[in-house]
Specification:
mainly alpha, 75% helix, 123 residues, flat, 5 helices
Length: 123
């Protein structure tokens, strides 16, 4: 589950890969394009590994909780890295939304077959 979150930086790298202007910006964009491709590979490896490992609803819920926890940690790390653009209250609201989504998952009628859910993560 943790390796699935490795591709989480993809959006940042994709945006930077589209820099177009000076010669320097084009060189930076080329570097970010390579990093972006590597990030996508990380995400795909994680998704494939989940497909192999998730065999039950219990496995799916555990993977969901791990991804939620790691993603929350990464959100805080990135927030610090970029000079705290999000206030603590905004991060708290995002975390509460994740907790709410998790509870909805646990309390709702049984979800799709876990392997299909994990395959959907790849798209």
């Amino acid at each position: 589950a943790i390796t699935l979150t490795e591709g989480g930086g993809g959006a940042l790298y994709q945006v930077c890969a589209n820099l177009n202007g000076s010669r320097l910006e084009k060189k930076i964009a080329a570097a970010f394009a390579k990093i972006h491709a590597d990030e996508i590979r990380h995400k795909n490896v994680g998704a494939k590994e989940l497909v192999r490992l998730v065999r039950s609803h219990k496995d799916y819920r555990r993977a969901f909780d791990i991804i939620r926890t790691v993603s929350g940690q990464r959100l805080r790390m990135r927030n610090e890295q970029f000079g705290f653009p999000l206030k603590e209250s905004q991060i708290h609201r995002l975390e509460q939304r994740l907790i709410s989504d998790s509870l909805t998952l646990r309390l709702s009628s049984p979800p799709q077959k876990p392997r299909r859910i994990v395959r959907d993560l790849r798209t």
